[in-house]
Amino acid sequence: MKIPNYKDARKRSKEEVLIRNFSLDNQYLDLGKNKKFFLKTYGCQMNEHDSENIKGMLNMMQFTETDEMEEADLILLNTCSIRENAHNKAFGMLGRIKHLKETNPNIVVGLCGCMAQEEGVISEILQKYRFLNFVFGTHNLDDLPKLVDEGLKGSKLNIDVLSVEGDIVETMPVTRDSKYKAYINIIYGCDKFCTYCIVPYTRGKQRSRLKEDILKEVEELIQEGYQEITLLGQNVNAYGKDLYKDYELADLLLDISKLNIPRIRFITSHPWDFTDKLVNVIKENDNILNYVHLPVQSGSNKILKLMGRRYTKESYKELFDKLKSIPNISITTDIIVGFPGETEEDFQDTLDIVNYCKYDSAFTFIYSPRENTPASKLEDNVTLEEKEQRLYRLNELVNKYSKEANTRILNKVENVLVEGESTKEGNLFGYTETNKLVNFPGDKSLIGKILKVKIIDAKSFSLDGEIVE
Length: 469
Ligand code: SAH
Ligand code: SF4
Ligand code: F3S
Prior knowledge:
Mean pLDDT: 96
Number of helices: 13
Bound molecules: S-adenosyl-L-homocysteine, iron/sulfur cluster, FE3-S4 cluster
Strand content: 15-25%
Structural class: alpha/beta
């Protein structure tokens, strides 16, 4: 049994990151023959992409996927720790699975993802969820085949979680959710240690993939006909800092841009590492889309400092203005309300920055204390009622600006990558270059194509359109 520990998870040594290649031991090759797996994923795009690797491994072992948990031989939960409600959802699901397992003890059940890296979660599992066959963490996804094998042989609660700073595993098999757009990890982990955030503990040290490995993956995706790639990292702007002397995200984007894939996105950008070179590269290259997710978290300098964000509202606005010089750019953000010590005045500063930036959209959250983080030791002195009211007021404002941003492109023609059929019959949906959702009538043979769509109606969260070509 290997149990996570925060002391090790916090370590950031200068030691080189180990890169290892995935290979599947022959003995596991037909483990999943005539067997089905059910995989539930919580959390961010990084977790979604990990799940694509998990599916890749399971498919290689001949498992097939099912959407019906009740008919699965193997159930896996890929979990998220970012806020308390993500926890509650996963534990709620474990309650349901417990019943299933009582009626069919042969089902193999595993839990992975960020929650697996938390000391508190593991002790709760050891007390209350001993029916699980195995738990593995974010640093050893490639242990899955071995754990499934042991599970099928009846292993009892095997906890296999590493608290190392993290290696990089290359050549992982992958079953992607889309044939047209793909996620590519470019940097793992996070060294920013914002005081409220659990990610640096659950995902380990910041470590970039070699540019050659990334470019090779992009080339393969182009060969397979992919139209859009999204470069992933908790802080993509830090790409290269741990590896190269002078090769940063801007250089990587330029190299990828030359490979001629129609659409390139990247998330998430921390304002701290946003260079002028990066602003220019977005401005000058058509296939690097005019869309930046730039979390602000708060508009109050006092709160930003307490959060350890390393910028002020003034420097954030300066960067924002530089980005706004890019024609038609869309900028979105994340905001937390009710951080410890946030007064009405601090909250007003947040509303002020939203009024200044008029974001295209924003994800808004009530602060949730996370185990072992510095902020969790501060007195949580904002009442739940105040937090909820602030969230409500913030959302009203954010939605007003989303609607305005959508209205600005009314009657304009946008390039839309068609992703699938929408719930309304005979309609398709896709996203503009600026990441806005559009629904429009069309035949499903158009899925996977980039079309010109005229915007004919604007709502807060989506657009309606019609194909012009
Ligand atoms: N790496 C990204 C954010 C990843 S987490 C960045 O630094 O911008 C996504 C969002 O979740 C964060 O931007 C933040 O707004 C929110 N979040 C993170 N920890 C939180 C917490 N403890 N409580 C509430 N929201 C949180
Ligand atoms: Fe968390 Fe901050 Fe890292 Fe984002 S940059 S993952 S908010 S610690
Ligand atoms: Fe959640 Fe882990 Fe992502 S905590 S947001 S799944 S990095």
